[in-house]
Amino acid sequence: MNKKTRLLLVFLFIVIGIILHYKTGIGSAWYLYAAAFILMITHFLFGNVLTAFSLLNKGQLAKAEEIIDDIKRPDFLLTGHRAYYHFVKGMIALQHKEYPEAEENLKQALDTGLRTSTDKALTGLNLAHMCFLQKRFPEARQYLDKVKTYESTDLMIKDKVKELERALG
Description:
Strand content: under 5%
Helix content: over 70%
Number of helices: 9
Distance between the termini: 47 Å
Number of strands: 0
Radius of gyration: 21 Å
Low-confidence stretches: none
Shape: elongated
Largest sheet: none
Order of helices and strands: HHHHHHHHH
């Protein structure tokens, strides 16, 4: 559910709740207040991170960037969603060739805790590649060694690891 729809529903539930509360009492309005509260909590705890992540996976970078930039307080997000927030921000910055910002966000994504080994491996591979491009070869090697420990089954990641190893070695 997008941000505008969620906030519109919160407003609508509160207004209808107030009207019902005024006309019939709290007994018939409490569930609307509860629904509005739950929608507001989910807005802050989850955001639209998974929507942006999905758009990023589909290659819709501009839409993913627009959605992820709508999140004003990533520190309110649950840990898993915060990790994917930083992952999406890092991948977008990487596409824009903003390497310092990309590296910072991808490191935060790894530290915060991505869910799948493929996401961890992809993050580590991108960090290794950025280090390689900046001629920081020992760091690139460290990230590459870390990528191998994630046991990703993605063949593209395995091929890219081999390519980077050949370039480093």
